[in-house]
Design goal:
Butyryl-Coa Dehydrogenase, subunit A, domain 1, Butyryl-CoA Dehydrogenase, subunit A, domain 2, 3 domains, lipid metabolism (chains A, B), homodimer
Chain lengths: 653, 653
């Protein structure tokens, strides 16, 4: 329960709390960001070609310091610490995001594929040079006609038993590789995902190492590369299209951790089910999604730091004769910024839990069971979706809250919003990711069919009793806890205090359970009525996605509540309680129609929640600046012209 | 009531319906857009300096054709038709938006100020050359420290009775003119808004014609200009900052339609109240807001045309073995795009009503009463707010609905979203504009105090009986109509058909009346409790803005319903009914929490509305392409690479 004295913040202690287990890595990253801070102006001033080169140079330089290789084994020059590599990556999102994404492409996607899908021979051949930034590569999965449904890729790798080579071919323009980072200018190697064919038999999608440029940067024979051209943002990353016209690579270039082809053309894999095999391969690349979500949350911190300071310097209207009112003294402005600050804290702590689970799974010495891996993938997908939507929304709101000044590139929002905009649709489109989350919940992370096959899910769920579906989800157990903790049996929804975390958790858990059960019922009813599964799915799709969102929101709130409870008593704990209440109640307010529809929120209680939110905003107003300072965004990364000391907007009157 | 057969669209007839009274002007504008269509690629390919020059050249060329001068008197080379000039401007929003905004700056703001605030001597001196594009100017109102509160501008114009000159001075950096379009490179004249001082006495803000560059483009003595630098978008417009260091201009350069200074320094105005005088001056510039709202609505049409066609060409998942499903066959995708199409139609018709009222008021031969002018300004403010928010939201949703392809600049969304982004905060920040709307409603368009003085409004409302406030609003009368038309007395909210326009109108009207009355009560209660008016306003601010939004939404729905009812029976009328239902029900769904809180929506009815929305989306799905084609966006303006014939994404399989 929140302690409602006038809150205060111990800023350094709050920053330490946010930095968590990786204070040193985050601090070192902050220092490095400051060292290449001039890239923020280069981003505005250099033309696309020059900026790309500048970004590449920074990335290679960073690689030299060890900053970008923390997740690789120490024997190849890496840091051997997955959690540290996520922390470093997230923190880099305070700075230029082309640098961040190029790092993600080179070390996360390209390097990650070699590490996770390759075996020792590939590690020995490539890892040292790619970790040091001497060997640049790209991750050639997405095709123009296949973004989300990667199992249906068109590129073909045919095994030639005579020469012991694979022949890589792009059969049509639909199947050209597209939006591939590092492809248009810098990559020498590509990890290419293609349909493996042996003697006319298709074995599904596998990954191959394919050279695309020589050491001098010349594109190799039978490879065609085209620049994707200017993009909304991230113009320091060279995205491109690749066509392969019968490119021959040695048999050894198949990344063969999960499947191999013998010299004589016999296909071998320890995983029999081709769907399971493919999604096991993909699952090893989950770190990318974890990183993108974390980056979005941190980009939000930059925007909120700037917009909050602007709102504490800028005056408007009021006080006839005297100075005008500070923007942040307006109720509306408080309502615009403070719930976003609260949600940023919430997502930060949810991301911390996720990154911890990632570290545990990928650092485990014993084999990790498949269900745990699937649950991790699901949580990564859901956190990525919520984190990236939050990033887009927050940065946009911050830009608008700074009016005309927010529109000038010198005030940072331009690059922030343009660069992060793609995060909601890359590394998995957010809607598709939430479908994956829902499917995990509805099938209890069964791996009997492809992760992305919604029709399979429809049939699976339709074949079960609804009770079984709900029983299998962990929500059900959580609901029982609700009843144990909150008094009044089923009356908790009316009788608990609204600023009681248990009440808020109960609301979130109840919604999740009810939505999931509702989806299961609708899927069954549709199938029972003899409807086409496609139609059944299409009609329930927003409900499916809504239930996944409800699930992830619950995880976020739990992470926040757990963190607050674990914080030692003191001003920061009190401030965090206010933030946690504000996050939870804002989320309830945003979806209050749903709870009212389902009899879990009376109209008077709903109004009381809205009133409480405004009250919480007023209480947090005096510590708004401390709350954003605690994010620990270096001043150089908040280099908005309108905040510079001595300029008019930066004057604190 | 909607006719629910499978709908069809007569596309040319629907376009004609949308084009309304200005078919010819809109057609001619479309042709001109196509003539300079290459600017869409120039926007991506040219550097900022060159693109600015290109944009300027296009603007001057358009001026030569008469395209941009339709609103000016014929004796100065104009077209003498305000309505036509709005139609032409709106239609230009299909094309490059830097061109549009530069046209707005030159002919709407600069030219509009000379025309509306000046007298014959100014018209004779400047209009002919500015209409022909030979004399470029800027509108120097906004200052770095004063965006929304323009009455508090810092620039001073002191009358020197010795030399019969005004001396224009920028007292501090807060008061530098900022974000001024045309200032950084092209303007020779500036209309400068400054505090008029005569003999130590301040007479409030007035507008003055101030030369800032010579004929060769050299900045004049005592004028300092700085480039605002790169912006999120609109980089073809040269925004800048201006400082004046005692710049002397002849007495005649005061734009003296509403106030004048005699040679001997006597101030004269027919409007005694200085607030009223200032807002009368500002009110003459209302056309700018009308134009920006219309432009946003039309920019949405471009985005929706592209995203809808993409969703009808792009396939994803489903159909094992066969072709994948079209994006638009997914329920979620329908839910993402179709309500936005419906709302675009709704806003289009609301904008048509507004433009018609603008034309009537500004073309009237007799004096128009002040209340009518105020109501027009309020409607312009509200429509601008809703139209520009809709534009930002729609374009963003369309970009995300096209995934990675949407992120490439060649697919149009980049420029569309970046260029329109500032529309929500320029020509009046949307929140400030909605406050103005609420104030008009709460004070029955009283002009006793400044339009933007919220504290004055608080005191005014607190001094009235709540019943009086509500009585004075036109909503009250509308509510009585509800009771006449819908059966069941107060049970209409439960008993009417949800697809009955009367039900939907009743819901919108009831919300507006209830919110306004609620705001009035809260303002009174706060003042009665002895609270500081600033605090009273701050606490009610979101409620104030919410009530204004409810008011404008009601106007939009009324405009749409009126239009549908006036449409001759036939397929288009049926299609419009479906769209109108979809718009109204989507708006109710979005705010369903509010209606449930206030006892006007049961939970079962709320669920029925959500179900009906999905049903309407499915019904509209087969005519989605016709509905966007009817917008009449020239193919060249939908020049998204991903839709080009022959490219993979454009193939209709």
């Amino acid at each position: 329960m929140a302690d409602y004295e006038q809150p205060q913040v111990d800023v350094p202690a709050m920053t330490a709390l946010l930095d968590g287990s990786y204070v040193e890595v985050r601090d070192l990253t902050r220092k490095r960001l400051v060292e290449y801070a001039s890239i923020l102006t280069d981003q505005r001033d250099l033309d696309r070609g020059k900026f790309r080169e500048r970004v590449k140079d920074v990335v290679v330089e960073l690689a030299g310091t060890g900053q970008t290789g923390l997740g690789f084994p120490t024997e190849y020059g890496g840091g051997g610490d997955i959690g540290a590599s996520v922390a470093a990556f997230e923190t880099m999102a305070f700075g230029d995001l082309s640098v961040l994404v190029k790092v993600g492409v080179q070390f996360g996607l390209f390097g990650g594929a070699i590490l996770q899908l390759g075996t020792k021979k590939h590690h020995d051949a490539y890892l040292k040079d790619l970790v040091s930034g001497q060997l640049l590569g790209c991750f050639a999965m997405t095709e123009t006609g296949h973004g989300s449904n990667v199992q249906a890729l068109g590129t073909v790798a045919t095994y030639d038993v005579e020469t012991h080579e694979f022949v890589i071919t792009t059969p049509d323009d639909h199947s050209r590789k597209d939006y591939i980072g590092n492809a248009a200018a810098h990559a020498r190697l590509a990890v290419v995902f293609a349909q493996l064919e042996i003697g006319g038999q298709s074995e599904g999608v596998h990954a191959f190492v394919v050279p695309i440029r020589d050491a001098k940067g010349k594109v190799l024979k039978d490879v065609r590369i085209e620049d994707d051209g200017r993009k909304i943002g991230l113009n320091g990353v060279d995205n491109g299209r690749i066509w392969f016209d019968g490119v021959r690579i040695p048999r050894e270039n198949l990344l063969n951790r999960y499947a191999d082809v013998t010299e004589t053309g016999v296909y071998r894999s320890e995983i029999d089910n081709p769907d399971r095999r493919f999604f096991t391969m993909l699952g090893t690349l989950v770190q990318g999604r974890v990183c993108v979500g974390g980056a979005s949350i941190n980009a939000s911190k930059v925007a909120l730091s700037i917009a909050t300071k602007y709102a504490l310097g800028r005056r408007q209207f009021g006080n006839p004769g005297g100075p005008e009112e500070l923007l942040l003294d307006y109720g509306l402005h408080q309502r615009r910024l403070l719930p976003l600050i609260a949600r940023t804290y919430a997502l930060h702590f949810a991301q911390e839990v996720l990154a911890g689970q990632l570290h545990a799974v990928f650092s485990a010495t014993a084999e990790v069971d498949e269900r745990t891996r699937r649950a991790l993938e699901s949580r990564a997908a859901g956190t990525k979706a919520l984190g990236t939507w939050h990033g887009s929304r927050t940065i946009q709101e911050c830009r608008e809250a700074c009016g005309g000044a927010g529109y000038l590139s010198a005030n940072r929002f331009d690059a922030l919003r343009a660069d992060t905009d793609v995060f909601t649709t890359f590394e998995g489109d957010n809607h598709i990711l939430l479908q994956l989350v829902a499917k995990g919940l509805l099938t209890d992370y069964s791996s009997e069919f492809s992760d992305l096959d919604q029709l399979g899910m429809v049939r699976f769920v339709a074949g079960m009793a609804v009770d079984t579906v709900v029983e299998k989800t962990s929500v059900h157990k959580l609901l029982e806890r609700v009843k144990d903790i909150l008094p009044g049996g089923d009356d908790w929804a009316q009788e608990a205090e609204i600023v009681d975390s248990e009440y808020q958790l109960a609301m979130f858990r109840w919604r999740e359970e009810h939505m999931l059960a509702g989806v299961a019922k609708r899927l069954k009813a549709g199938m029972d009525a003899g409807m086409d599964p496609k139609e059944v799915f299409s009609r329930c799709q927003d409900h499916v996605i809504g239930s996944a969102r409800a699930h992830v929101e619950r995880l976020v709130l739990e992470a926040f509540v757990d963190k607050v409870r674990a914080t030692p008593d003191g001003p920061n704990k009190s401030a965090l309680y206010l933030l946690c209440d504000l996050y939870a109640l804002s989320a309830i307010e945003a979806d209050r129609g749903w709870w009212m529809e389902h009899g879990r929120l009376t109209s008077s209680r709903s109004k009381a929640i809205s009133k409480e939110i405004s009250e919480l905003c007023r209480k947090l107003r005096p510590i708004a600046e401390d709350l954003v300072d605690a994010f620990g965004v270096p001043a150089e990364m908040q280099a908005a012209e309108m905040l510079a000391p001595g300029t008019v907007e930066g004057q604190r009157m």
